[in-house]
Design a protein that fits this description.
The complex is a heterodimer. Chain A is α/β, with parallel strands linked by helices. Helices cover 42% and strands 18% of the residues of chain A. In chain A, strands 3-2-1-4-5-6-7-10-8-9 form a ten-stranded mixed β-sheet, with helices on both faces. Helix content of chain B is 46%, strand content 14%. Classes of the chains: A alpha/beta, B alpha/beta. The interface between A and B is large, with 58 and 92 residues.
Amino acid sequence: MKLATIGVGNAGSKLIDQMIEFEVETGRNLCRHALVINTARTDLAKPENIPDDRRVLIGDTHSKARGHGVGGDAEIGAEVAKTDIDEIRRVFDDIEIHEVDAVLVAAGLGGGTGSGAAPVVIDELQKMYDEPIYGLGVLPGQYEGGRPALNAARSLQSFVTKVDNFIAFDNDAWRSRGQTIEQGYAEMNRELATRIVTLLAAGEVDESDVGENAMDSSDIMRTLDVGGVSSIGYASTDLDVPKEGLLSKFNDSEEPQAESTDAAKIKGLVRRAVNSRLTVPCEVSSADRALIVFAGPPEVISRKGVESAREWLENEADTVDVLAGDDPRPNSSTLAAVVLLSNVTETPRIDEIQNQAVDAQNKIQELDAVRDEEIESLITDDNNDLDPIV
Amino acid sequence: MKLALIGVGDAGTRIVDRLVAAEAETGRWFTEGNVLAFNTAAHAFDETESIPDERQVLIGDTHPSVTQRVADDEDTTVDDADAAPDATDSQTDRPGVGGDPGVGADVATTDLPEIRRALDQIDETEVAATMVVAGLGGGTGSGVGSVIVEELQAVHESPVYALGVLPASTESDRRALTAARGIRTLVPLADAVFPVDNEVWRHGTEPVSDRYDAINDAIATRIVGLFGAGERDPTSPSEMRIDPADIRRTLEVGGLASIGRETVTLDTGSSGWIDRLLRLLGLTDDTRGGRETDAATVKRLVQQALNSALTLPCDIESTDRALLILSGPPSAISRKGFETGRYLLEEETGTVEVLAGDEPLPDAETITATVLFANVTSVPRIDELQARATEAAAFEPSSEDTVDASGEDTVDASDAAVTDTDGGTADIDPAATDAGEPDEGEPNGDDRDAVATREHEFEFTDDAADGDAGS
């Protein structure tokens, strides 16, 4: 698939940046256009793989933002995106949309910029293009608190109704011990980028290597067609080939000593992918459609294994709409299976976020209701004897 | 967050001077040179060390009720007022506006053109907000400070905050009255007010001047910790850096704000610096070195900051919005600790509007948690202040119950005070607006004189009445 990618806010921008890094490292060519949009000047400087003219600062003329972010306020995030929509549109104008199959908009849903500005950007994209627009959204963890949960619950509604499919990533499911804030979300971004790129880049590497069972962009798009929220599973196994893949490439006499990967092993890989940490934990059987991509040297992908894995997933996901195909990577030292579960409807984490959001909204409204009165009563004495100086 | 600082009066000037010094000491250049100090008595400028001369503005020097006699020791002057509230001539004896906020406001209104000229030196485009710093017990701090906040609100698009030092319990009731009125005035005018309670850092027997130093240091540390976060060169990228908009949004609810702070020293065992060196050289990505803190340490630090001596002691459960900044080496702060610390703040304050971020200080040997509580509404100290103030307003020291038992005269006087000053407010407002018009630019316009005289007469009468009652 050929993608135009847009990162909105800090988390979204870092994700797109990480996707590009991963695709360059693995010789893939997925992101034909990359663009990041932010309200904070400092955050806009962080991505390493985005050209300077593809970084858009919005809200720098807004009195509450001024290039310093929106303070986690989704309303202001949306407001500044609407105000600066012309500026965003001008950058879109450079995107040769006929070159791409789809647009991917990535954002963190807990913050103000991602949750507020991204839906505005998506609205604009839907007006401008016929191509499908996919969303990639990071859900805040429980410990990020009530305000991020409220931003996410509200933004999720906008995302899911506006995009053609929403791929969710749950911060909580990927939290691990022992990380420092310096490492931040780098590890998680890397994991997510690996899954997204492996899935969406299928069929785009080297035209000459297209196998008989190669995955096609249209298959992936068809699976995503149903809309809703999607989750991705992933598993990979190291193949027993020398690390110097480049050398063996130039030396035809030296066959890659790939361990023969039999059918059972292929099926095992897919089982692992589905039972591993999904990007958002969900009930697999609630999936509407599913798809498996095998990325690795074609000779290790057994037809029989692919077919039995597909049948297994058909059973697990309780849907007949399961596609399976290859993404041939002749020089790869790993075999990876990535599973897309499209339109999963049972995602406990989203229910939790919604409950947390409702509580948060109630608390916010309670505080709003009494704020002026409480301040007034604090600064005046009981009998209102004290008068202001000016 | 870039912040312009405007010190008003003795205490305000001292604190801004200290803040500017702290800026250099910590390398957090958050004012960009946007500092000013206003005073009605020149002697306050004698002791400034960090505020450039051209940024020190004397106002009211031609005003009839302002005296420029330099006191032998201005701290003694304060104590004089405390010790002898019945000295009828204490107001005129003291330099400046004699502790009278009415005179302070009047002086500021009269010298508004000069104040405006001085304020023009502040480049609003360089800062994200402006903070007016004043001692609220003083006539200049409360009176001039209020007018300056009002003026800044009229010309600045960005928020105007006020930092006001509350008088200690040993200071006079009259200063308590001025401070209570100052709070009453500033809260509706400013975007947020940071009252600082003198009592918190007061150590009983220390000389007054040392006490000021300790208090001013404590204030400077906390203000720099909050507003200076992220204003050092961002050598270390941070995913969770605190943005100026975060501070601004937290404070936008208005009311009173308080700051808590706690620091923990990182365990720098012998293996610690080796690990650190290896990390610096990129030879290891091992983060289990001696400097790394576990989640529990960070959570405990945040808990201690919540329980620390707050700039304004308050019930943190009455917090409207909160903000947490962890300053320290990003490689040593546990992310889980950061997250649980933030969540702790939400649980302890009962608000969901909690923003959290870090200030990366790669070489620091400590981690500091700075917590901002915005719009705290349960503040016993303010209630006490108001109680003393109402007593002072209806000054009757022999009476147990000031309202019921006091004589008719006192009640009348306090009623009159309310009415009169309300009238005064109405008078000052149009004057402040008119001053922008060319024909009113002349400071000796008849109308202005009339207003000024009336206002002054009332204030003078009021205070004199207090003095009479006391003698």
